[in-house]
Amino acid sequence: MEGLDPSSNQLLPLVYRNLVAQGVKDDSVAALKPRYAVTWGQNQKTFRLLVQTLRRLHAADIETLVVKGAALIPLFYRDSGVRGMGDFDVVVRERQFGDAVRVLLGAGWGTRFWRPELFDTRFDHAIAFLDADGNSVDLHCHLLMACCEPTADDPFWDASRPLEIEGEATRTLCATDHLIQACVHGINWVRIPPLRWIADAMTVMQGRQEGIDWDRLAELAQTRELTLPLESTLSYLRRTFDAPVPEDVLRRLAGGPITRTDRLRFAFWAEDPRGRPLGRLLHHYVMYTRGVRGAGAVGRIQALPAYFRFWTRTDRLWKIPFQLGLKGVRVVANRLGLYRYWDA
Fold first, then answer.
1. 253 and 281 co-located in one domain
2. What domain range includes position 196?
3. Which of 67, 69, 225, 319 gives the lowest tally of CB atoms within 10 Å of its CB?
4. How many CB atoms lie within 10 A of CB 154?
5. Do 73 and 35 belong together in one domain?
6. Would 94 be classed as within a structural domain?
């Protein structure tokens, strides 16, 4: 176990519970118990911070959706020791995002984004905040990175369910949307593959309270341009883990209309972009087009200056060329081995 990668280590508390449930008793199982106990203790702290944050947001009349681990644990895992949380994720309505940012800043959270007042909800889905102790919260204006256009989240809010965490009432996604979120988020490339998405997706599909509405999933895949990531991940889960995904659903996803833009977006989310200059151009193409989807030709042109301000993090148009030049120097220096651009 000592040689396991970080993603596999995240699964060990769940492995511990599953082995205990099977009646396995030996030294290797006993060695897993401390990992389970540490995860349980860390999650109690995270849930307390989550409740404090929710109360502040609700006091400002801001609606909230709790997603990812903080919702999956009470609803599906039903054990705070089996699923770790590096942070907690709260979604607010796009129109209330600025107010929510001010609430968190006023509560002592600091943003990782250089200037949160320049954040544009059309071009990104969340801001990560840190407190003085290193705790983290992701505040979302959109549920998914792939869908940032106006009204993108309306179906998720409309189908949301009540959720109570330590006495504080909030809302969360329906089971179908939890599965969509786990799969779409899981396909995103990161340096350390997030194996936990597999356990999340399988646990949601095996949930006892609420089944998956496969027709809804297929419809959202098409209307939100998520066909490729959902077909890829669900096919993998069925093939590798015998996931209960209906064959006709996979055929609907595989037979849906796929455009060249869909394939470019999928390549952007799923592939390693490091050391690929064309990959950087694809990055900006996807970031820009996802926010102006449906805006029309005039709206797309009008949004270009806003995107450059957002990307360069400046409030003055005349500063944009200087910021672009600086970024170019960093990319070239990274290619020459003089600057560790991606580590920074």
1. no
2. 187-257
3. 319
4. 11
5. yes
6. yes
Distances (CA, A) of 292 to 134, 143, 306: 34, 17, 11
Element (H, E) at 105: helix 97-106
**Is 66 found in the same domain as 2?**
yes
117 found inside a domain: yes
Question: For residue 306, with 0-12 CB atoms within 10 Å meaning exposed, 13-18 middle and 19 or more buried, which class applies?
Answer: middle
Which of 170, 237, 253, 232 lies closest to 203 in space, CA to CA? 237
Residues 150 and 199 in one domain: no
The closest of 232, 210, 236 to 221, measured between CA atoms, is 232
Please say whether the beta carbons of 114 and 313 come within 8 A. Answer: yes
241 three-class SS: helix
Same domain, 102 and 6: yes
77: nearest Cα among 148, 156, 226, 178: 178
Q: Look up residue 156 and give its two tokens.
A: 């998720």
Q: Residue 299: what are its φ and ψ, rounded to 5°?
A: -65, -35
Digits of tens for pLDDT over the chain (344 positions)?
778 888 899 999 999 999 999 999 888 899 999 999 999 999 999 999 999 999 999 999 999 999 999 999 999 999 999 999 989 999 999 999 999 999 999 999 998 766 788 899 998 899 999 998 989 999 999 999 888 888 899 999 999 999 999 999 999 999 999 999 999 999 888 878 889 999 999 999 998 767 899 999 999 999 988 999 999 999 999 999 999 999 999 999 998 888 887 887 788 778 776 656 666 677 778 788 878 887 888 888 888 888 888 888 787 777 778 777 777 777 777 677 766 655 44
Other CB atoms within 10 Å distance of the CB of residue 47: 19
Write down the pTM of the prediction: 0.90
182 domain residue, yes or no: no
Nearest CA to 331 out of 285, 274, 282, 284 is that of 274
d(CA 338, CA 329): 11
Distance in angstroms (rounded) separating the CA atoms of residues 277 and 8: 32
